[in-house]
Amino acid sequence: MLRLIVRRLLLMIPTLLAVSVLVFGLSEILPGDVGRTILGPYATPEQVKLLDHQLGADRPLVQRYVTWLEHFVTGNWGTSQVLQEDVFSLVMGRLGNSLLLAAIALIIIVPTSIILGVVAGVRQDGIVDRTITVVTLSLTVIPEFVSGAILLVLLAVAVHVFPVTAAAPPGASFGTRIYYLILPSIPLMFIELGYIARMARAGTVEALAMPYVRTAILKGLPKSRVILRHVLRNAMVPTVTVIGAQVGWLVGGLVVVETLFSYPGLGSLMVQAAIGHDVLVLEASVMVFAFLYMLSNLTADVAVAALSPRARRGG
Amino acid sequence: MSDDGLSKEYGQHLVEEVLKGRMTRRQLIVRASVFGLSASAIGSLLASCGTSSSSSSASPAAAVGTPKPGGTVTVGAAVPLTALDPITMYDTGGIVTVDAICEYLAWVENDLTLRPVLAESWSPDATAKVWTFKLRQGVTFHDGSPFTADDVVATFERLLNPKSGSSALSALKGILSPGGTVKVDDHTVAFHLDVPFADFPYLVSSGNYNSVILPKNYSGNFIKTPYGTGPFMLTKYVSQQSATLKKNPNYWQKGLPYLDGVIFKYSNDQQGQVLALQAGTIDIQAQTVYAGSQALFSDPNLDVLVFPSTGFRELAMRVDKPPFTDKRVRQAIAYSIDRPGLLKALFNGKGQLGNDEMFAPLYPLQPSPEPPQRAQDYAKAKALLAQAGHPNGIDITVTTEQYLEVPQYATLLQAMCKPAGINVKIQLMSYNNWYSGPNGSTPWLDAPMGFTDWAPRAVPEQFMLPMLTSNGIWNSSHWKNPEFDKLVAQYDASLDETVRRQIAGKIAALQQDETPVIVAYWIAQLRAISKKVHNVGGNGSIYLDLTRTYIS
Q: How many interchain CB pairs under 8 A, A with B?
């Protein structure tokens, strides 16, 4: 088990390197440059050239990459050329926001979708199953900017139950911050509900058909105990894998929800950095994002291994 | 001083213009303000014009009810793309924030009147080549240092240094050069221009938004040393999120500002801003765009201010690229456009008709004679095309930026051109790609035919010089016409209103006939505000003056 974790952690290093090269290369292909972002469309080309030179943005790509890598691995993430702020504290601040939103969303999503999935699986093909399946799948296909906007109109504008933004005022207590994040979590729940509940349902149906479950039932164990002890554990294996894959999206991919609820997360920072050619910020946030993504997948795999002995041996 | 004498003489000239019916009273107020005439002087000029309709529009921000001090307003604005920096700022989010902290020598009001701010008065010499500005005394920066002529000189020398990268450099190019800003005494500055320029005060006002006065020892990092002379002081700035400002207790206008503080909240989501306005989370939306804002017009708690502006969309045709080398082809396209139809479809009729020349209806100085308003005329368009050797019609490609209503404009253009035999192919480009292409290219200056959004300008020269003269830096149409260049230079140099209007008439007629660019409409700018907030100007939706704003 430990060997598996160490090996996977070591494998992250070449992956992260590959990601960093890719991002550097791609940001080169993007039209425009950092000098133009800073000075705007009405500055003369000469002024832009002068600034690019001052910032070193006109040096060869390889040279810039090597300098960046040296600084990055030694913990010197530099200062954003566009925002004139320390990259490390900027990215970490945004990451903290994103993690909090992801955590709230997961706390709402995971129990809800697993309960719904298991209930549907137990009542397979019944009216309850059909209702749960139709409702969760319908919610999943609604894009988050649609459900988010509708929720905002209903719960923040028409009735003032929730605030219209996800960002609590400066100096707000932890409880207030969480309160501000409930509304933005709901569209995320809608999206995730279908996937996760579907996996939990499939796992439940499969487990219920297993001989050992039949034995347990025939043995006379109460049904609730059979489901909790035998079915749920096996149904969780595919579900955990799916959840693991979604965590990455919840941390760094929420550009739409972050924009709609004006929440300063990692996703919108990445988009702004890419548009503005702010390479230092873009690289740092993509690296953090990629690392978290791999970490959440690894955690999911470890959890699966803990749940199922077969996967442990296969690792 | 003899310069003041000149201003007085100019005032008399304006009165004559009004008496002869060549100028309206409103136009007199605006023009007199450019020449630094004080409010009382303007009042007496109006009195000598006769007594009809004595209510003047000199102060568009007139108070409603009794201002009540206290409270904080929250302003929603677009996310500043870069660090907050007065010298290089170019987007609304950055400009409205800096406008609350820093001040200009003069402020451009909604009707384009100039209101003295850090300058008390100004006047030109007889040739309009040297402009002398008397500065306000007893003003201090937020760090306590006094405001003097040295700060003004340092500010303009900084803007004119290519290394500072300010857009103000292109606005002042060919008019004011380094070394041209001269300290006369501690409270007097003289601008020695390269050429005579009758509308110069606009170039050192909010109309040239980077020209806020910063201390002479400005550090270069505004977040660390955010010192202006304005009504509010920056206390906290969080990149891409918010700015928190508090009242400046030592503000030079006693009793102002009324507000205790201002919070700027940055968001790029128009829909989110609309919802925040409706929920009361923000009180003022700095720039409201028409599309997607319909809900605001019917909201009983909100006012949507609608102001005519001088902002427009340029449809430029490369006069050096066939088929646009023939002016008849360019004219044929202009005659295919149903301008009132465009305004109706794009803005529900809000806005003003364009006439393919730069003298927007809002400008106090109008061409004499005014060229006839262009209207849709397919027969004429077809005839022009046939004369140009295209009896069976032509195929053209127009590039459009992905920006507000511009793609819809392109689609309407396509439909409107079809009956004239002009087949328009539309090429769509992202806003960023359009202004800044790969390897330093600039598609908006190179495309054979394309749309460009121009923000409002206080005087038409700010369009004509960069966009249409031979040496213009933003000349998308590549039109070079020595006659036009000469006329614009004459226009800039003349202090006589009648002569200027006649030159304007020639400029407008020449530009319309040559049609290097199509100006189909002038945009109405919108600004949505909560009904409890008073004294908020429109200011082209780009600038924001909160000095007299109060909450009821």
A: 134
Read off the tokens for A311. 């996967």
Same domain, B347 and B482: yes
Q: Tell which residue, B527, B535, B455, B537, has the closest CA to residue B107.
A: B537
Q: Are residues B138 and B235 in the same domain?
A: no
Which residues of A are less than 8 Å from B223 in CB distance? Answer: 84
B454 lies in some domain: yes
Cis peptide bond N-terminal to B323, omega within 30? yes
Q: Do B271 and A260 touch (CB under 8 A)?
A: yes
Looking at the structure of chain B, the number of domains it has is 4
Inform me whether the C-beta atom of residue B39 falls under 8 Å from chain A C-beta atoms. no
Q: How confident is the model at residue B542 (pLDDT cuts 50, 70, 90)?
A: confident
Residues B178 and B160 in one domain: yes
SS3 (DSSP) at A79: strand
Say if residues B213 and B155 touch (Cβ distance below 8 Å): yes
Residue B298 contacts A where some CB pair is shorter than 8 Å: no
In a domain, B55, yes or no: no
Same domain, B89 and B64: yes
Convert the pLDDT of each residue in A274-293 to its tens digit. Answer: 888 899 999 999 999 999 98
Tell me whether B275 touches chain A (CB under 8 Å): yes
Do B258 and B70 contact (CB within 8 A), yes or no?
yes
- φ and ψ at residue A214, rounded to 5 degrees: -60, -45
Residues B386 and B449 in one domain: yes
Same domain (yes/no): B84, B196: no
Residue B18, pLDDT above cutoff 50: yes
Q: Which residues of A touch B302 (CB under 8 A)?
A: none
Look up residue A154 and give its DSSP letter: I
Query: B377: distance to nearest CA of chain A, Å?
Result: 36
Query: Is 0.85 exceeded by the ipTM?
Result: no
Domain enclosing residue B258, as ranges: 60-102+230-307+525-552
Task: Name B398's bridge partners.
Answer: B426
Distance of CA B187 to the CA centre of its chain: 28
Q: Residues B526, B304: contact at Cβ < 8 Å? A: yes
Q: How far is B173 from chain A (nearest CA, A)?
A: 11
Give the closest of A32, A39, A170 to B88, CB-based.
A39
Please tell me the distance in Å from A251's CA to the nearest CA on chain B: 19
Q: Which of residues 377-406 of B touch A (CB under 8 A)?
A: none
Q: Do B165 and A50 touch (CB under 8 A)?
A: yes
Partner-chain contact A164 B267, CB within 8 Å: no
* Same domain membership, residue B481 and residue B376: yes
- B53 found inside a domain: no
Q: Point out the domain boundary residue: B177, B198, B227.
A: B227
